[in-house]
Amino acid sequence: MSVDTVSLTGWGRTAPTTAVRFRPRGYEEAAAVVRGRGPRGVIARGLGRSPGDAAQNAGGSVLDLSGLARIGGVDAAAGVVRCDAGVSLERLLRVLLPLGWLPPVLPGTGRVTVGGAIGSDLPGLDHRRAGSFARHVSALELLTADGEVRTVLPGTALFDATAGGLGLTGVVLGATLRLRRVSTGLMAVSTERAGDLDDLLARFTAGGDRLPYARAWVDLMARGRATGRGILTRGEHATPDMRPAHAGRARLFPRSGAAPGRSPFPGLPPLPDGLLGPGAAALCNEVRYRGSPRARTGELRPVPAFFHASDALPDVRPLYGRGGLVRYRFTVGYGQEETLHRVVRRIAARRSPAVRAVLQRFGAADPGLLSFAAPGWSLELDLPAALPGLGRFLDGVDEEVAAAGGRVCLAQDSRMRPETAAAMYPRLAEFRELRARLDPAGAFRSDLSRRLGL
After folding, report:
1. How far is CA 392 from CA 103, 143, 416, in A?
2. Three-class SS state of 324
């Protein structure tokens, strides 16, 4: 097992803190770290894709599980796979798709570990049909505060606290996942432009869930009659009769990364570091909106290109400047569309340079005590952390979201106040009580847990 002292941040590169990082090669080494933890405790970390401070532990220990990445055999009859927590969803997809299977839930990036997907209870693009990631876990192996490894099953209090529990009930070491059967490696995709937010919401709901996977990019720089305009992308798994004759020769997985200096915004030249001001952001958004088809159906894309298109682009974080980026994701219930409208108008009026904004629909709430997804609309956006007054502005948005019965995503948060989190998550007291009973000494801690009093 390797050990070093490092400065760590989340993917957003805000608020770095220093911790001792352990990289275990097996379960027993991970258990030894938990048993020998110091007074500041320990937290698990995967690929570091949480934008905030959920996988940081200032002055304490961080258990890097990226080396625990074994994939067991796929049970084709039962449709299950057993894998270590450090396996990425991207790698799992590469292994499963040629066998005719998919991971149960696919979010917008494959660079998340199975352990991270459980700890944040990640929702995918078809949440209305499939729910979040932990709903498809049939068993997990959890390293608890006493240094023992337990098999935890759905329907138990410990499972419900661990699903979305941000690593604060223990270290997920492995899991058994129920898989989804597919007959091809292609998606049939439809794309359409919407002129404003009302138009976008109407297009989302039209046709029900005939195309189960759906997300929309929202232009948060547009104002006036175009406020909230966007591009809706929906998809379904292609059947063999949709597959063209040449598909067998097509590249199933896009090349990882991109050529150095390539712009992440098609149609524009590369942008230098930290140039994401309002003018540049508005230009990027205008090019993206005008360059998309008004309506197109039947386009075939490889599964990875549909779900994880952004993973093939270069790292966009330098555009946000040295201060990093703040990812803000919230959800409000159906019937609270006016709150969504007000938030979009506030962001547009402020001229905050937002080029990444993703709108989704959620279905039934998941059983995790701190799971984020709940029936309604979810909007996720990135903003430069160094924007003047950003903290006060987002505090105001927090209040509006909380007043509408909505919530901000804890797994992606980097700046919320503890009283706000308590107002948004009604089962937080239940989570704290269970955690205190299972881990009275506070073995599992993170910068986020201390900041929010979890």
Report:
1. 39, 39, 10
2. coil
**Nearest CA to 22 among 10, 34, 14, 13?**
34
Helix (H) or strand (E) holding 307: helix 303-307
Query: pLDDT (tens digit, 9 = 90+) per residue, 245-280?
Result: 655 544 455 444 443 344 455 544 444 556 688 999
115 membership: H or E segment, kind and range: helix 114-119
| Torsion-angle region of 257 (φ positive above 0: left; ψ -120 to 50: alpha; else: beta) | left
Backbone angles phi, psi at 181, to 5 degrees: -85, 135
d(CA 253, CA 230) in angstroms, rounded, equals 27
For residue 113, which of 152, 150, 151, 66 has the smallest C-alpha distance? 66
Q: Per residue, what are the HEC states of 244-302?
A: CHHHHHCCCCCCCCCCCCCCCCCCCCCCCCCCCCHHHHHHHHHHHHHCCCCEEEEEEEE
For the whole model, what pTM was predicted?
A: 0.93
Strands 230-237 and 295-302, sheet pairing: unpaired
Length of the chain: 454
> β-strand 17-23 against 61-64: which pairing, if any?
parallel
Structure tokens at 421: 């989190």
The residues facing 378 across adjacent strands are 331, 360
Tell me the torsion sign for CA atoms 76, 113, 255, 106: positive
Structure tokens at 316: 């966009």
C-alpha to C-alpha distance for 415 and 328, rounded to whole angstroms: 9
364-417: pLDDT as tens digits: 999 999 999 999 999 999 999 999 999 999 999 999 999 999 999 999 999 999
C-beta atoms surrounding 432 within 10 Å:
16
Query: Which residue type, as a one-letter code, is found at position 254?
Result: P
> Which pLDDT value is given to residue 246?
54
What is the maximum alpha-carbon separation in the chain? 62
Q: 254-258 contacts: CB < 8 A, separation 24 or more?
A: 254/302, 254/304, 254/305, 254/309, 254/312, 255/312, 256/311, 256/312, 257/312, 257/314, 258/312, 258/313, 258/314
For residue 7, count other CB atoms closer than 10 A to its CB. 10
Copy the structure tokens of residue 99: 């066998």
Three-class HEC string of 379-438: EEEEEECCCCCHHHHHHHHHHHHHHCCCEECHHHCCCCCHHHHHHHCCCHHHHHHHHHHH
User: In this predicted model, which residue has the larger pLDDT, 176 or 277?
Assistant: 176
**Burial label, 40 (beta-carbon count in 10 A; 0-12, 13-18, 19+):** middle
Asked if 235 and 190 touch (Cβ cutoff 8 Å), the reply is: yes
